[in-house]
Amino acid sequence: MSxxxxxxxQLSKFYGSILGxxxxxxxxxxxxxxFLGPNGAGKTTLIRTLLGIIRPTKGTAHVLGYNIKSEIxxxxxxxxxxxEFNTSFIPDMTAMKFVxxxxxxxxxxxxxxxxxxxxxxxxxxxxxxxxxxxxxxxLGMKQKVKLASALVHDPDIxxxxxxxxGLDPTGRNQMLDLIxxxxxxxxxxxxxxxxxxxxxxxxTDYAIVFSEGEILAQGKIKELTSGQRTSISVKVKFNEDLxxxxxxxxxxxxxxxxxxxEVKISSDTEKAIFNAAYTAGTExxxxxxxxxxxxxxxxxxxxxxxxxx
Length: 309
Known about the structure:
Elements (H helix, E strand, L loop, with lengths): L5 E10 L2 E7 L2 E2 L3 E5 L6 H8 L7 E6 L2 E2 L4 H6 L1 E4 L12 H11 L4 H14 L15 H13 L5 E5 L7 H17 L3 E6 L2 H7 L2 E6 L2 E7 H4 L6 E7 L2 H10 L4 E4 L2 E5 L4 H12 L2 E8 L3 H15 L1
Parallel strand pairs: 4-9, 4-10, 7-8, 8-9
Antiparallel strand pairs: 1-2, 1-3, 1-5, 5-6, 10-11, 12-14, 12-15, 13-14
Helix pairs in contact: 3-4, 3-5, 4-5, 9-10
């Protein structure tokens, strides 16, 4: 039996003639998984289809072995969903009542929903504020309330759709820490849907890249970024400007990044660097390589797609 928590086969959704997702076939492994792509790429459409909010035009999908068409109640019982927007908040309702209400909506008894709501709000760091009205909460606090409401019925999978949108750096880091810790402290499977590469790279080990309703790539982030070196990093002493000009005169792409001189790898790059240093009277103090990042992979995928069109 497959250990994948979600599988889809040729899953498609059209809104009339408008494409939402097209023949999406993925296998989502246990742990932390990133749905990565620009806004409008199909990430949210897939999530809503998996939750049964919208019905697919064709294709099949299973969540923890349950069919999203014939067993959607079992699917929903096992997923906690953090939507992108705050449209469901009632300003005069306290965080405690709101999260407990979400628990009741997910089938918990009254007493259990209150206890679970309290536990969930404490977990996300809002225990002391749980009796405050939602209308007095900051955006970051509201995001934490959404996470608490997703946790209240103790689901196996948490799906977070753009959970750091609009947050300041402190709020963003707090939310990402909570999402990462869910996999460790709570033994949850987490799907983070985002257009922010660093959020996905910081919290997940596996990425699925979306574009225009289709899948461009999927795999472990380490494997996706394990390609060849992209540039050589150099630190020099003496005549740095002349050293850089010598390389550029030979047609090499050179830029500054984090205090290092980066030279894009092409033909005979290493030899060219040492020749440029020799003719400039420059002393090389550091010489190393820079490997692919998820951003490099993302850019290459989209550039290749545009080149095919």
